[in-house]
Every structure is written in C-alpha cells, then in structure tokens.
Amino acid sequence: MPADVHRRFLKLLGWDGEELEAFLPEWLKTAEFLRLTEADVAFAVDEWLPTYWDMSMCGTRKFIAAVIREAAAMARAGDYINAGESVIYSMMPSAAVCVYANRIAGEGKVHIFYPYFIIATVWTSFFGRELDARLNGSGLDPACQHCALNCLRADSTIKGMIAPPTVIWNWGLQCDEAPKTDEMLKRLEEAGWKSVLTTIPHDAPLGMDESEDDGRVSYLAEEMRVAQSQVTGYTGVPVLDEHMSGAMREYLGYLRRVERLTDLVMNSDPVPMYGNDLTLFSLCMECAFDTGYGYINDALDTAIAEVEQRIREGRGVLPKGSPKLACHFSPLNVPWIDKIFRDNGVNLTLGRMFPPASQLIKCVKPGDAYRSAASMCLEAPNNVNMLDEVRMTCGQLNRYPVDGAIYGFFAFDRWIGALEKIMIREAEERTGIPHFYLEGDFWNGARFSLDDKLATIRGICSCLKISSLASGK
Amino acid sequence: MYETLKELEKVSSRRAAELIEARSGGVPLVEYFGRFIPEALIRACGAGVYPLAGGGELAPPDAAKDDMLGCMNPLARSIAGGVKLGTDRIAGKADVVVTAVTDIHMGRLSELLEFWGVNVCKVGVPSDWQNGIAFGYYLNSLRRMLETVSRLSGKAMDVELARKYIGETNRVNAAVRHIKELRKRANPPITFENYMRLQHLSFRLCDTGAAAEAIEGIGLELDGADGAYPENAPRLLLAGRAVAPGDYELLRLLDESGAAVVAEMLDEYIRVSDVDIQLDGDLVENFARSRYMDTVPIDSFQPSWDRRLEHMLELCGEYGCDGVVWYQLAYDEVYDMEYVCLSRSLAERGIPLLHLETNYSYTPESLALARKQIENFVGGLRR
Description:
A: alpha/beta, four-stranded parallel sheet, globular
C-alpha cells in the first residue's frame, strides 16, 4: 500500500493513531510539494534518519516533526493567498523577531515562511538529497560558485514549485547575492510579487563591537522599521509595539531553551548528544516558523529532559574523555560529516557557534523593540566584521571546554568565508585552542564527497586524540 | 596619440613621486578606491590623492590567496595582493586608504587591509539606493571620511578650493563627453585601449586641473584625426564591473579583432562623466547626489538592472552598436546574475552578446582562447 511508507515516516517522527491518520493527507500533499517520492521517503525512514540522527531521542524526533509541520504549512501558501490571506516569505539570515511580529499581528491572516531554507533543510538533513548548484535552471554559471541556497531559490521559482507570496522580505545582513536573487527572478520570471529589503553596508571599522555602536544599531533599526512599513503596505496589517514585544518574548523563550540545552551538552563528559542534533535545535535562531514556537519549544523541553537523564546515567554518544570539536558550520546539512568525526572518536559540537541566549538578551533594552532586534542582529557573529566575529567566537570557545575548532564549510560564501583563514589564525592565537580548516560547502554536498574529506577528517581526529593523550585527559 | 599618452604616463609617475615627497613635508597622502569617493573634496581638505588600483596581473591575486578566499573576485584579490607585494606606486606610503564599500568584495578587501595594519577609512554605500534613509547614510559616511582627512591635514575643507576642483572635475567630464561624441563617428579616432588608458590616467594625474587640460588637448587632437579602426568595423559596447589598468592586452585583442569598441558601461576605474556636480550649495551633498542618485546605478544596487539595461540599449542606439561584450570577472557573483538577465533581454532584441571572462591570468594560452572567442564573435557580426 503506497501510504505505508508515509505512515512509517510519520510514526518514526512521533505521530500515532488518529493524529497520524488526520495528518497523513497533509503530509502526502507536502511530500508531493517537496518532490519526494515513496523511494525517497523509504530511504529516509530506513537509512538516512537512523544513520545520521539519534532517533532514540524523542526530542530530536519531535524537532524533525516540527520542521515537517512547517513544511506542510508552507505547502499551503497558495491556499492562503487564494483565501485572501497574506503570505510573507523571508530569507536567511533575518531578524526572526521582526518577521514573527507580522504573524502575531495578523492573528491568523498573515503567514510567514522561509521556504528555501526549509526545503533545503528537509532535503539535505532528513532525506539525503544534495542541493546541486549546477542544476539551477536559471543559467547561472556553476563555475562562479553561487550559493546553492540561492540556486535552489532560482530553480524552484522557475519550475513553479513555490507559490508567489504577497511580499518577500529580503535581508542583506551578510551577502549581496540573496537580495539580488530576488531581482534576478523578477527579471527572468516577470514575477509580480513585491519585495522589501533590509540591509546595512559592511563598513564598520575592523574590531568594532557593532552591537554596541549606536550609529549602526540606530540605522539598522530604522531600516527594519522602514521595511516593516512597506510590508504592512502590502499585507494591510500594521505591526505595533505590542506585537514586536510579543515576538521578542517568544523568541527569547526559545533562545533560553537552546542555551540551556547547549550548556548541558557542552559541559558534559561524555557528550550526551550528536552534533547534528544539537545544531538542529538552533535552527530558528535566524528564522521563525509559521507554526509558531509551541512544537519546537516542546521538542527542546523534551530534549533537555532526555539529556539531563543521560547525564545522570553517565551515558554519552562516545566514551568519556573523547575530544570535542567546536564546529563553525551547520553540520546538519551534510550530516555524514558529524558521523565520520564520531566514528573516528571525536564529538562535533556547537554547530554554527551561535552566541548564547544570555549574550543576545543583553541586547534587549526597554523601549524600542526595533533597536533591540537590530542590536541582536549585530551580535550574530556571521553578520559583523571579522574581528568582532573573532571576539564572539572566542567567547564561545572560552565558555565551553573544547579541544579544537573547525571551520571551512563556507568556502563558497564571499562574506562568511572570505577571510575565514585569517580569522581562525587570530582565534587560535587568542584562545590557544587548535583550529582546523576543512574546505567545503555546507549547502552543496555535490561539491565534494566522503572520499575527498575522509583522510583530512581522520587526520584531524588523530591530532585531537594525540593532544588529549599528551595532556593526560 | 600614443606619444601623448606615454608623456602623460611619465607625468603621472612623477606625480606619484611628488606626492610622496609632499607627504614628507607634511601634506597627508590619501589613496582611494571607487567612484563614490570625491578626489576633489579630499584635496580641498589639504591632502594629496592617489587612486588605489589593481587588476590585470596574475601575481597580486595569487599573493592574497593565503589570506582571502579563492572565490573572491580577482579585482579585490589584486588590490589586496598589490598592497601585500608593494607593487602599487605608493603602497605603504599613504596615511589613509579610503574605500567605498559597495559590496562584500569591497567590504572584505577593506577589512583585510585593516588587518594588515593599513589605516583604512570606509565609506558605506548602501545598496538599497531608493530607500529614503540610504542616501543619508552614504552622505554621512562621506562627511566622516572628509573629517578624518581634515584631522590628518589639520585643515578644514577649503570650500572655495573645493568649488575650484569640482569645477575642474566637471571640465574633465566635459572633455570625456567630447571624446565620447567623437567615438560616435563611423570610424572613431581613438581605440578602446587608448581610451581606457586615458580614463585611467585622468585619475593617476592626481590633479583635476591637469587632467582636464590633458583630456581637452587630446580631444582637440582627435577632432582632426583619422579613424583608428578598419572602415565599416562592427561596433561594440563593452559592459562589466571594471577594465583594470592591467587589462590592456585584452583590450588590444578587441581592438585588433576588426571590431571597434565605441561605448562602455563600467562601474569602476572610469569617470562618471554623464552628470556634472552642482557648484552651488553643499558640495559634499552635491557630489553624493551625482554619484548615488543622478547617474546609472551600479550593479550591486537594488534594484538596478532595469535601469542598466535601459541605459545599455540607449548606448547601443546612440553609438550604433552591433553587439555587446560582457566583461565578467571570475567569481563576481552579482555581475554573473546580471549577465543571466541581460543575455535573455538582448536575445529577445536580437543583439549579439559575448561573455568574456577573466581571472587575470593572461598567459599565452588564455589570451589565445580569448582571441579565438573574440574573432568568432566578430566574425559572426560580419556575417
């Protein structure tokens, strides 16, 4: 029976009984929307998910389910538009608070989605499907090393996969390519959607703590305010201070949970959770879900309880004393990287090295919520100048006991990856922690293979293990 | 023409030496990059100016490889590598390097220079130019930069001097426009290589008065000159980010292909000559407006491609172009995206388009390949 494999998929993620049967038709539509065949789903259920994710953790299964629910909601975007409701698409990285405030203000009539990020995450993380920048359908030159996420965006739009939204809220907090993809698609597709851009030039003096600089914070806040007024012009839904405060409250609730989980995992020996899983829970640091925070907070609370239990029992994913390697990229999009490290006796941890909630909470000041949101954006390491990023990264590396740090999977990214080689030399000097560089592209697994990376990864693992032995750990 | 340019080249070399000497006498030296930086106003703040230039040679981008990602565009890597290798005429001697941060390539290049200990002053140029608050950001950034220069020189901007230098800049623009008019002739009297050399020299003379005089003189010389190309040569428009001072070999290939490059749409290393800067009122704001609002937007501005296409079509009409050459820097992602749109728009209009890409590796092999590409394209235009 064709639906069996889909039932098995939903069951694996925690659906059961009537709830499963009720959700099944929606999932089938979602699978169709995501261009997932039965074979793809069977592969995920039988091979991919059990191999790369800790499916024994209920929290992990719940979080994957939350992402699937978000994908299902996104598949209905066309229905929302047809029903006269508004749909806002947004791009990564964004100020999640600003986007989410529209959902609160809309009271069910405004929907927010990050469609390309969700599709990319579902495909790469849960179904083992690589994003291949060569297949972008737009004529972009693959040799130019375009971002695979933007290529996915071009390709999916050109193929009519994604319903046109009411408005796209684009963010130029890091690169130029994402905002310009919008203009390219408008030209190629003659698309009638509206778009709004929030951006700030990367002209801060090297070493400036950008989140503390009044001029930068004020300007970015004003950019956000202007963008919001444009978005409101298209949705017809004004966003008031109370909506921004509500969004901020919910966001901070999520951040605190992520910090609690991170603290537990990072301060434990043995490490109680896979690197992929830990990174998964931080998925919403720079985006928001239309399905809200309920499912993801429940997943986080469950994971926190499970991790606490494992710590009490002294259980880990590797033996006590195994080295911990902080990871500057998001391993969940190429989940086999985490596994190879684990298979070679090293825990990959702290994916993306996002700042802890407590650091971001410092940015929240009473009064103007846009200023707080702007300040938080400028406290995100990847959005700021190289030495400000080093400052934040070193803060993370000094906060948790790690044996090394690994970078390099932004080798396609002309902003994040541009000066990474000198950045890691600087961070290594400041922390005394060994840093490694493994060149790759975390969106686009098609650019490299396990064989390419295996020898390097084994080399890094051996180095860490020898260091551990030498230090008598 | 060639002799005149050679003479000007010598003047420009002497000028660099004079600026270095003046610096030892207390006149600060400012190196700058980008069309958004006002050389005239910096000079009016009591400093000498020299354009930060790079590109067209392989060694500098290679020199930056250890510090900078390989897929940054080769222009950014060239400028960085040039500073590292000291190949720039005044490398390491400037008191401050002023850069216009128009995109991430320029943003990261500026950071790298700072990391190496270069005193960098960045001028932020927001890409959302139609957003009401963005112009103010650029204008404030310019004012802060000029204050930095004034602090170095110990002099506030001399407004009368500024007006004089801007007047001279307008004279340069008028002289460039005159030469552009001459390029509309059936057989233009100046090759593209010489035209671009002249453009580059107009910055490297470091003196708007001298530049105006030189270009006016050359314009007069060209008034009575014969055509520089074979009769009935196909006419081309060249577009892209920049033709760098080291690109002349490639320009020569174009000039020798039997086609005439008669017009261009470039974002850097070129005079913004289509608009003059107003001489009344706030000169800083006038300059900012002329670069940010009143001219064709650069590629990274959003939105810009409709206006840029419109401008290219206007140029094709005015200059009677038979085809377009898109000069693409390797890994320059936003220009590659514009090319995708442009290729469709030009195809719809039946205008032939050649994609000529460079990573500044002008080896005999890569030049032979480029020659073949150009010859095939020009051959197609003739048919």
